[in-house]
């Protein structure tokens, strides 16, 4: 009866945990949907607004939309950074015991060779064949390949953040052109680019701590650099004019 009670209690706990996990996933999905809806709503509202002459009221509305986009990008960047910290911290913590295991197993080949030589001299060869398979176990337990796959999958799940941030830059630029504030846009985007570059640098540093690499670090840096060049080019053109 006691055992049955424990089984029932465990099953109930597992069911509650699964319900909680589903609830959290739904909240995350709803949050992301809300962010996408914000960008889409600004796009459609701006498109409708720009079908008529841009008077003073329209300019103020475009300014408000630009402010909303800036605030959304800041939220996305901070959420992205927090997610990176959470993901890499967990992988770094999980990597410690596996790294120690890999270091311990790295000493197996010399030990196996000594064991093989000793057993060969003793004329007892069958165990040597069994022991010779242990390096395969070492290779299987080597954490680097598995960790590379885990961190790539985990960081790939954050792709929505830089994608939405860059989409926000594009839409903000269009609104700035419509509002005749393109000069202000290129003049102030530098600080935001620096903040995004810091997030990318954090990704590179975190994965280096785990002695791994992430394939999107370089494309992220190229994206930031491309906008920096556009900002500098437009600033020089405006000064020349």
TrEMBL record:
Protein name stated in the entry? Uncharacterized protein
Question: What is the originating organism of this protein?
Answer: Chloroflexus aggregans (strain MD-66 / DSM 9485)
